[in-house]
């Protein structure tokens, strides 16, 4: 039986915001919200770690805020430790006023509906955020990645999209935040939860619901198309996701590691022996393959390229002891279908798709994905791919430190606007920052094939 219980309706106007997962010991700061600025921009204020806040403009600029007392906060660039010269001042929360440097702003009166609804055998916590008024609006359902944190607490997109007139439904993945159940990375199970989330979003929005679709980041790039194939929606956005299997993701990441470090094809062949060994461990649910990995480490551990091997999950297996990996590995990759092939779904998916990828993505390198998406587009699938050449995973631009580690500074200019236009069904703009669009001068925003009848309920996930 498909059932759901609305919990509360909150207007994000002058009062404070409370997420479902908030508690008296961990309250959401009252400054959190979306602000309409005097210069016409939109500024999001989000909670951050250790009593800090994070500001974000829709053009991708961001910084971490540290309190200086008396409502005044100082900013550091992106996720660096370097001051960027910006200062933010808040009035008391009842007035909902803000000043960013010399620009004043006012908290937007977004409508927030918190709910609990039934997923696939588990109760999930969700939230619909709507722009003010009664107008019909598109709605995007945010599908999480592999993180264990609460989407309801962390996802700024739920306010950012709503601030420009788009409804947003966010929910905590099973086993995270305020949702019940056990954490899982089983794509079919997660896709079924996403289908229930769309149904709940439509129910709560009522007559205000226009176009409805998904935005899925990282692992959500496997889940969103699967959900849309089972029960069609109006659009799918995949951000920094892949059209290859998780094991192929790791192999391609290792190849990219070697290329970035300046090593040639002969070294790449050696490095992929490590990928073979770690793949065996993952495929066996962490019960086999340790001798093979140990042998590869003995053979190549002292060679200069070895320390550059990172991959997607291989770094973890190289760094840990067999004892710790056997214990910690299974819950870390709970339910992951290591050889999941997304192509059968994508080859038959008639839902318009926008894939937004990072050209410097170390965790999910996009080259093979781009080749596959281009083949699908030529075969008539409604796909547009966009690459931000300087973006890493999460669609973040970065600085490279002396030790080779990256520190994120911002999201690319044009990334948010591109998603907004696609969700609203608008034509492509002349340019979205540095993005390279592949798929013609316009994207397809209507499904090409006749609409299939919705199933009465999502299929029962396989064990």
Automatic annotation (TrEMBL):
It holds the Pfam family Hydrolase_4. Residues 344-402 form the Peptidase S9 prolyl oligopeptidase catalytic domain. Residues 426-463 are annotated as: Disordered. Residues 1-21 form the signal peptide. The keyword Signal applies. Residues 139-232 form the Serine aminopeptidase S33 domain. GO terms for biological process: proteolysis. It comes from the Bacteria. One of its GO terms (molecular function) is serine-type peptidase activity. The keyword DNA damage does not apply. Keywords: Signal. This is Serine aminopeptidase S33 domain-containing protein.
